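To illustrate this point, what follows is a protein record of this kind.

___
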Amino acid sequence: MKSGLNSLGDLVEEIKRRAQAKEDLVVSTNNLQAIVEGDEVRLLVKGRDAKPINGVAHRQIQGHLKIPADYYDRMLAEQPELLCSNINAWLWANRENRLVRRLFDTTRAFLSDAFRPLENEDLAAAVAKPLIDVDADVMSAQITDTKLYIKAVDKKVTRELAKIGAKFGDGKHKIVRGLCCPAITISNSEVGHGALSVLGGVYQDWCSNLSSFKERSTRKYHAGARHQLMEEETYALLSDRTRAVTDQALWMQVGDIVRAAFDRARFDSLCEKIEATQNDTIEGDVVKAVTFAAKRFTWNEEETQAIQSELIQSGELTRFGLYNAVTRVSADLSDYDRATEFERIGGQIVELPQDEWRQIAA
């Protein structure tokens, strides 16, 4: 598992700091303008100041205006004035309302006016008591440009992950690999990068690997009603009070889901699935199998080499070995978003239908 902020207290303080610096504006596109100031491309909102556009918002603007990504990126790097001309021409040619989300001195998101913000501070408040109630340990947490992550483990509930088919000399005792604990990965995006998500998972205590599973998950999409501008050119989105009342039922449901994620029966079911992957051997060439898996899970060359090395060094040439190699490599990735995605890929490998696994193994 990749480490994140130093403590839960650090996470809470960072969430509070960001909550105080947010600004949400619903704006007609004819009241928006891309400009160059210094060496930065900024988005000017009529009646307000211009703020630099971050990478997330750039990609959303590019996608919304249907400007080819390679061309957009080249203009941004080499001809920012030309990029602004392109952006403004298409913004003004197709008038519609957009939600512009700003944080500190940055334009951080350019979204549909039907996007329903689910705020990180509300999520943190909703899951805090359930996590305390089950006495879960927050092992890692982080806020990136795209998401908030909270990863917690209940170390009071344990299970030995047995090595199938391996026995001690008396033939009566299974060799075990170490203790596993039920885990949970909670994530949310305030900028349109996926749904609010609660994923159940397994934490392997002996190697600090974490995997998350779709089977034990819930997702809530940021979909709502469109916001009408009425007479104003720009208006600030829903007050904190209105949001709190509207989302109260949702946050209560999220709290219940967090409690249920540590259910013993669910945890045992996941462990049994992981144990069973030891029977699924890699029958063909290991390098080719990893290369084939790389195409299936979109690993880049460096990631593929690291997974291949971990798998071969482990000597565990099975689906279980590939699962462990992927979750182990996740801890070494520099990008927290990508590391968390690898933990999810670990779960996907376990959950692969047999016919899809055989394509990799053979």
User: Anything to note?
Assistant: The CA atoms of residues 282 and 361 lie 4 Å apart. Residues 240-260 form the longest helix (21 residues).
